[in-house]
Amino acid sequence: MEPLLEVRNLTVRFPTDDGLLTAVDDLSFELFPGETLGIVGESGSGKSVTSMAILGLLPKYARIQGSIRFRGEELVGRVDQEMRNLRGRHIAMIFQDALASLNPVHRVGAQITEAIAVHAPELSDTAVRTRGLELLNLVGIPNPVDRYDQYPHEYSGGMRQRAMIAMSIANEPEVLIADEPTTALDVTIQAQVMEVIARIQQRTNSSMMLITHDLGVVAGAADRILVMYAGRQVETGLVDEVFYRPAHPYTRGLLASLPRLDRRREGQRLERIAGQPPSLLHLPAGCAFTPRCRYADASGMCGNRRPELHEVSATHSSSCHFADSLDSRADAS
Ligand SMILES: Nc1ncnc2c1ncn2[C@@H]1O[C@H](COP(=O)(O)OP(=O)(O)O)[C@@H](O)[C@H]1O
Ligand SMILES: [Mg+2]
């Protein structure tokens, strides 16, 4: 099967007052039709910069290397107008902050249908309105006919997020990039929004990049997972592989910090990964996770040799030098 989206050796750097910052470092992955790829990593690991690169929304001063292909066509280096045509219609984004994405002075219905009218000018006003109401209904907004003519401030936070999702999917994009779609919401609303996203994906059969700092969010929603650390890919695999046989110490750390009902004991505290991510201005020569890693070797291989992503099974890869011997190393330590 041909990938819909193919990212090859993507590197994004930003010149800053303190030097060149490497936000994304030699990242490669593909997204296949109909699949959901979870992209997981701590804040600052390069997730949003990756999605902005795909959408052509990085600032002009960003230095981009590598290739991003959509249906085989190169996106890196395209002019703004071409990217504008692609955005919304073929690749759409669900942002974290619905309030910032909705315009406070326009009615929600009008904002949702504006996108439709731009890409399908042949539709009559009535047809556009009908489509807008369908979309509100699809994302689970009660009483769409009344809600259609309300302003964003008349919506609750969860409803605004739904309205924004309705806007993103108005043109049935083939690729949906959801960047922390539930991070700003409280837990019960989070679950509802994830349900909406799942329902939409089933209906439209679109592919999705589900970006989050929370492994728990992708557990039920993704087919495959890509774990990022300091701009690099450290592990990728099918959801079950990554959850049940994590092959990178960073992923193991993330999993240990997840609340789990089956091992909760009275007063037991969750493990947190000690330390901080490295400065992206001065990345270490070797594995960027070394200073925080409980498996790292004393001889200095981890600190000195940059690990390459390598297969631990046909569908599962890790960049850890010791991916194949983590369990015995854990026993020894
Ligand atoms: N426009 C920019 N100019 C300079 N640095 C940036 C810019 N955008 C993002 N960065 C930096 O790139 C790194 C990765 O950011 P980002 O992709 O937003 O992380 P996250 O994984 O939390 O989404 C961060 O250190 C961030 O400060
Ligand atoms: Mg982000």
Helix-strand layout with pairing:
Elements: E1 5-16, E2 19-31, E3 36-40, H1 47-55, E4 63-70, E5 73-74, H2 80-86, E6 91-94, H3 98-101, H4 108-119, H5 125-138, H6 144-147, H7 157-168, E7 175-179, H8 187-204, E8 207-212, H9 215-219, E9 224-229, E10 232-238, H10 239-244, H11 249-256, H12 301-304, E11 310-313, E12 316-318, H13 326-332
The structure holds adenosine-5'-diphosphate and magnesium ion.
Adenosine-5'-diphosphate is lined by residues 14, 16, 21, 23, 41, 43-49, 59, 280.
Strand proportion, as a percent range, falls in: 15-25%
Number of helices: 13
Mean pLDDT rating: 90
Strand order of the largest sheet: 6-7-8-3-9-10-12-11
Total strands: the figure is: 12
The backbone outline, from C-alpha atoms, is globular
**Structural class estimated from helices and strands:** alpha/beta
* Topology as a string of helices (H) and strands (E): EEEHEEHEHHHHHEHEHEEHHHEEH
What fraction, in percent, of the residue positions are helical?
A: 25-40%
Q: What oligomeric state do the depicted chains represent?
A: single chain
Question: Mind summarizing the main beta sheet?
Answer: 8 strands, mixed
